[in-house]
Amino acid sequence: MSDLLNVTSSPHVRAKDDTQRIMLYVIIALLPATCFGIYNFGWKAALLIVLTVASCVGSEWAWNKLLHKKDTVKDLSAVVTGLLLALNFPSSIPWWMAILGGVFAIIVVKMFFGGLGQNIMNPALGARAFLVISFAGYMTDFSEYPGFVDTFGGATPLATIKAGGLAQVDILRMIIGTTPGTIGETSMIALVVGAMFLILMGVIDLRIPGTYILTFAIFVLLFGGYGFNMDYLVSQLAGGGLMLGAFFMATDYVTSPITPTGKIIYGIILGLLTGVFRIFGGSAEGVSYAIIFTNLLVPLIEKWTVPRAFGIAPVKKEVKTDEK
Amino acid sequence: MGIGTFKGGVHPYDGKELAKNEPIVELKPTGEMVFPVSQHIGAPATPVVSVGDSVLRGQKIAEAGGFVSAPVFSSVSGTVKAIEPRRVATGDMVMSIVIESDGNFIETGYNEVDDVSKLSRDEIIGRIKDAGIVGLGGAGFPTHVKLSPKDPDKIDYIIVNCAECEPYLTSDYRRMVENPEMVVAGLEIMVSMFPNATGVFGVEDNKPDCIAKFNELIKDKPRLKVQPLLTKYPQGGERQLIHAVTGRDLNSKMLPADVGCIVDNVETVCSIYMAVKQGKPLMHQIFTVTGDMAKKPCNYLIYLGTSYKEILEAAGGVKGDVAKYVSGGPMMGFALFDLDVPTTKTASAILCMSKDEASMYETTACINCGRCVEACPENLIPSRLADYAEHGQDEEFEKWYGLECIECGSCSYGCPARRHLAQAIRTKKKTILAAKRAAAAKK
């Protein structure tokens, strides 16, 4: 028995997709929105994207190096975080703020909690919230908008609508994306193209984004104050961070429920909260806070929605009373 | 009625083209043959021969050790050389009868019947029991026990598992292509035992030739039908197959008979035919030699007791360095650490793999992606179960239905973090069940 053969446990084959490849798919899916953002906002947007990604990757590398941990940069998750964070910046913020955001996202929101898979909220959104609170002036200033005739007077379409200016909003431009806003959020088309790629590659499914958008749409129709006004509905869907949030941030694996029913509930809560924040809140925006807040509810949602195993019959009510 | 599929599952590369078109060739063994007395679920068989005895092919060499047990027969004629513990494919040491073949294959007589339809239910079961037939798909559950449910009238489906959903394996496929009439005859015998039963061939739709052949053969047999199934692993899992064919669900605490079903795989049904009609005991299996490193992938009719090594050598050996030899398919088969072990009733294939995908990737952090959840045919949350297993949280493990796992490996297959989910869950499941059995034994 000296020459024992190699033995490992079944299954003996594995699928192709690993974490790195999934992250790569997400990066590819974000490229249309990224490219459109650069086209829309110019070279400064490109610089901010590069700085934020570099800051995220650098922070993760340095953290692992300093704490003598295994290098995890090659899983590309830091690149995704950096890209998402940059797409949430107005193009006018100073360069150091992009770097600070990247460091905060990775070190505070992700690595403090144990790294990939352990963070309780989306790192990019956590960092964005931090920056909005710390530098509200910079983070909500969308007046710098080069290249196109500005019919919005420096306000985002949603802010215009909030101020009662639905008639002044050009819906077609909102769908294409040639409006003020954050770097990556403006183009509904670019985001939906990327999302379709993710769905096609099996990275995400429609449970979360579908229920999110549907719930939000219903909420807006009921409580928006415009009745069944298609212009209002479409501008609410295309405007602000909804598409970016629904397809790329709410679907973040780590911070969304793993149970199938949980995903539906999560989507519904997101839709309701976004609606409440946008319509009844002080700001025209509400996607990122809705996602951050719902991220924190995930453990609870999962606890409620453990699926019954195959072939396990639902517990009958009579049985319950017997136990009492 | 069923929907022809189930929820969950994965689509691994199926590798069947390697051996699919190789006709079954009989492989006559030489030299030493080893017959472990425990080749089935249940009590080990008791040897009825002694060292030095000469035996004939087809002679009973060990008798059933209880109701849930099965006798063992010699597949060669020769002399009993030893009765001693021998290493088997799973790595255990099992008491075995070692027979030196004389190379003549002199047979004992078989008690053939002319008309099986004249046999009574009990006679059929008796013949199956005496032939040592067990579930040949891998479980090894004695078939006569399966065919003796409490209430035979309540059985309304006899399902032949023709899914062969394990990648690479082609033995069932070859049997269906070469001897479909034998499978049909076997099922007819089974159906005749249950007055209310319909016989169903559950065939994955990647085998259209088998579906066509069965349909042709059962034209005038109203009690038999063919149910095409969507090709997806693990369609051949018992619970998944029953769901796909009948729409009924069952859990780990139930037997197929509890939902009116009896399931047997292709080769088992053929063996039933041979036992009942020809009176032949179980001495053979169809065995696939395959994998990307097998020099000449092929299908053999093997004599049980032949060593894996002899079969592989007969097939021309391997092309180069093999990273891993697997007994069975790549999803649920087990790796062999020695090839000089005997084939048993549940052996179906040897897979020679150039890569060990189970160990070549580095395990990284779980990203909660939910692919294991989507893949799990049992509707479990494998990533959490593996966490509970690794952290020793037995209570949580059971609460999240960990004991329902069928160990199909779909979760590990699809995991992008390359976690060993199935391994962790399987291990925890075993220890919990063992503890339960021990507790029950104490009472």
How does this model look, in words?
The complex is a heterodimer of chains A (324) and B (443). By secondary structure, chain A is mainly alpha-helical. Chain A has 15 helices and no strands. Helices cover 60% and strands 0% of the residues of chain A. The longest helix of chain B has 22 residues, at 421-442. Chain B has helices at 121-130, 143-146, 171-178, 180-192, 208-217, 238-246, 266-278, 308-314, 357-360, 371-375, 382-390, 394-399, 410-414, 421-442, and strands at 24-27, 32-36, 46-47, 54-55, 60-63, 72-73, 78-87, 93-101, 157-162, 198-204, 224-229, 261-265, 284-290, 298-303, 324-327, 334-335, 349-353. Chain B is globular and about 60 Å long. Chains A and B meet through α1 of A and β15, β16, α9, α13 and α14 of B.
Which fold name corresponds to the CATH topology of chain A?
Ammonium transporter fold
Q: Sheet bearing the most strands of chain A, described? A: none
The assigned CATH architecture of chain A is: Orthogonal Bundle
Supply the helix-strand structural class of chain A.
Answer: mainly alpha
In quaternary terms, these chains amount to: heterodimer
Shape of chain A: globular
What is the helix tally of chain A? Answer: 15
Mean pLDDT of chain B, as a whole number? 93
CATH superfamily of the domain at 118-278 in chain B: NADH-ubiquinone oxidoreductase 51kDa subunit
Helix segment tally of chain B:
14
Query: Strand percentage of chain A, roughly?
Result: under 5%
Count the beta strands of chain A: 0
Query: Helicity range of the residues of chain A?
Result: 55-70%
